[in-house]
């Protein structure tokens, strides 16, 4: 039987009764912590503070016993920065640097973690905060395990809660920009929830609503794309007023103009004071940061690998090559590159990105004509074809996948060796997400970008991404200029493109 129930009720957050001397001691500790935090401009020092009755999270004593130098080394090596916007003196916790230090849980929730050697830095640093009920913004490179970063605390909270009162309203909602990504998050959670017998469902557009309505009657955790969730909320198939854990995955995309209103509508029945709000992403442009703050309650921002306000940062294990050429040479060059990677005994998995749906269809036809095993994924395909083609690529039945930016974010496809950008995306953030489909979970990867004069408005941003990841910047790219222009277009990035030969093509659309 599926296990259901609400997340930790506010009563759990209430401190136990204390004596006067306890109170004095606590006040002094809080003041010391606050002074320390103020000195650091809001940036927290992660010291041996071990538990706080107010949070419901108790740090493992073995973790508390570790020497501070070991914690400092972990934070330093992984370039972890923790910034707490709270004006209250909040407790600081040590990163959970080993699975041994996870807090006890009432089911064997942690069993599937045995597949991994240790928590990834974003998991280690955000888990204690999330277990403690804080609002968190987690920013870390592509492929660094963010899904379990927000997923594990979500499942643990569900398991720890005892409530079984009917009707069953969802207690956690995870929103993702695309159907495939929603499915993938669902698949990851199910591996864990299966052990924990929690009831998870996945809701997205492009398929019938009836089954989804049935699933929503019992689901405790809902993974969804925004449009369909809003539809089902509007026709009262789901009541989100009991949601206590809200995740925006790919948060910068979810807060972009295209989705902003949907998100506001969806979360309207879940007051910020009663929910824990969690945002994870690999890119965090300034343009969304103020809006994000309005959705959150004194969030803690955890960044892995450097300043998120600077240029978007690509995973440094991906080798990035940029080839500047004439637009008319692109197709020949693409086929040359595929010849290199596809002709041997074991053809590599290659992901080819286009900007427009029509362009993607044309490129897919071309690749098929050349005899390669290719599949496509873009917004004009029906949902079952999208899932089928993605599966074909995952299984290796197709070794080349031609995609629009609908596949740029989040998708975790095993062993993608090469990403080829046939047409540059509309923003450098999208570029970072696209190439992030390779080099996942500690592996290395390779990305080749075909860059033409038409893309020159983004040369400055791209040069900065290359430099930040210590990649070579070709002279031919530098000549387009290093100025970084501000993002101007709300839904599609700064620069509306003239797309030359393919003028009738439709732009990418994201999911409902
Ligand atoms: N602690 C861990 N150690 C090793 N691998 C892990 C760990 N946690 C998760 N993974 C694996 O790493 C891969 C990438 O994880 P995930 O898809 O969550 O990345 P992500 O950070 O969300 O990437 P993106 O920014 O592209 O969405 C997955 O295959 C996942 O199973």
Automatic annotation (TrEMBL):
InterPro entries: DEAD/DEAH_box_helicase_dom (IPR011545), DEAD/DEAH_RhlB (IPR044742), Helicase_ATP-bd (IPR014001), Helicase_C-like (IPR001650), P-loop_NTPase (IPR027417), RNA-helicase_DEAD-box_CS (IPR000629). Residues 47-57 have a biased composition (Polar residues). Pfam families: DEAD, Helicase_C. It catalyses: ATP + H2O = ADP + phosphate + H(+). This is RNA helicase. Residues 1-57 are annotated as: Disordered. Belongs to the DEAD box helicase family. DDX5/DBP2 subfamily. Residues 11-26, 35-46 have a biased composition (Basic and acidic residues). Residues 127-302 form the Helicase ATP-binding domain. Transmembrane segments: none annotated. GO terms for molecular function: ATP binding; hydrolase activity; nucleic acid binding; RNA helicase activity. SMART domains: DEXDc, HELICc. It is found in: Nucleus, Nucleolus. Its main location: nucleus. Keywords: ATP-binding, Helicase, Hydrolase, Nucleotide-binding, Nucleus, Ribosome biogenesis, rRNA processing. Its EC number is 3.6.4.13. ATP-dependent RNA helicase required for 60S ribosomal subunit synthesis. Involved in efficient pre-rRNA processing, predominantly at site A3, which is necessary for the normal formation of 25S and 5.8S rRNAs. Residues 333-481 form the Helicase C-terminal domain. It comes from Penicillium subrubescens.
């Amino acid at each position: 039987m599926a296990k259901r129930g609400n997340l930790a009720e506010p009563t759990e957050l209430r401190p136990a009764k204390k004596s006067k001397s306890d109170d004095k001691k606590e006040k002094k500790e809080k003041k010391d912590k606050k002074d320390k935090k103020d000195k650091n401009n809001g940036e927290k020092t992660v010291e041996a503070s071990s538990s706080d009755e107010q949070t419901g999270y108790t740090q493992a004593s073995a973790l508390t016993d570790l020497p501070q130098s070991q914690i400092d080394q972990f934070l330093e090596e992984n370039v972890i920065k923790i910034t707490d916007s709270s004006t209250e003196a909040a407790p600081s916790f040590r990163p959970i640097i080993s699975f041994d230090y996870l807090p006890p849980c009432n089911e064997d929730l942690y069993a599937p973690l045995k597949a991994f050697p240790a928590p990834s830095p974003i998991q280690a640093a955000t888990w204690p905060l999330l277990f403690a009920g804080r609002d968190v913004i987690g920013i870390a490179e592509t492929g660094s395990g963010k899904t379990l970063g927000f997923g594990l605390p979500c499942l643990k909270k569900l398991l720890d809660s005892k409530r079984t009162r009917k009707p069953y309203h969802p207690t956690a909602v995870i929103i993702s920009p695309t159907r495939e990504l929603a499915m993938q998050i669902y698949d990851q959670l199910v591996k864990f929830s299966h052990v924990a017998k929690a009831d998870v469902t996945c809701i997205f557009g492009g398929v019938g609503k009836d089954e989804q309505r049935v699933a929503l009657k019992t689901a405790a955790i809902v993974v969804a794309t925004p449009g369909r969730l809003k539809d089902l909320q509007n026709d009262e198939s789901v009541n989100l007023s009991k949601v206590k854990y809200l995740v925006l995955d790919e948060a910068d995309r979810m807060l972009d103009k295209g989705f902003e209103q949907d998100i506001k509508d969806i979360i309207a029945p879940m007051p910020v004071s009663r929910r824990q709000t969690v945002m994870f992403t690999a890119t965090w442009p300034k343009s969304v940061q103020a809006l994000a703050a309005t959705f959150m309650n004194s969030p803690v921002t955890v960044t892995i690998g450097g300043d998120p306000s600077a240029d978007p940062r690509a995973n440094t294990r991906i080798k990035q090559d940029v080839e500047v050429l004439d637009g008319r040479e692109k197709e020949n060059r693409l086929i040359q590159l595929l010849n290199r990677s596809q002709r041997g005994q074991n053809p590599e998995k290659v992901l080819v990105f286009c900007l427009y749906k029509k362009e993607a269809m044309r490129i897919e036809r071309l690749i098929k004509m050349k005899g390669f095993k290719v599949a496509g994924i873009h917004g004009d395909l029906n949902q079952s074809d999208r899932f089928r083609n993605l599966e074909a690529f995952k299984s290796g039945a197709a070794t080349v996948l031609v995609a629009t930016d609908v596949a740029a974010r989040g998708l975790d496809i095993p062993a993608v060796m090469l990403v080829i950008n046939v047409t540059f995306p509309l923003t450098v953030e999208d570029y970072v997400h696209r190439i992030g489909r390779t080099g996942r979970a500690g592996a290395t990867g390779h990305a080749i970008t075909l860059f033409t004069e038409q893309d020159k408005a983004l040369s400055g941003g791209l040069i900065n991404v290359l430099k930040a990841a210590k990649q070579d910047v070709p002279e031919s790219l530098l000549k387009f200029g290093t100025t970084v222009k501000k993002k101007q277009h709300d839904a599609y990035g700064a620069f509306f493109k003239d797309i030359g030969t393919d003028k009738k093509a439709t732009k990418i659309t994201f999911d409902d």
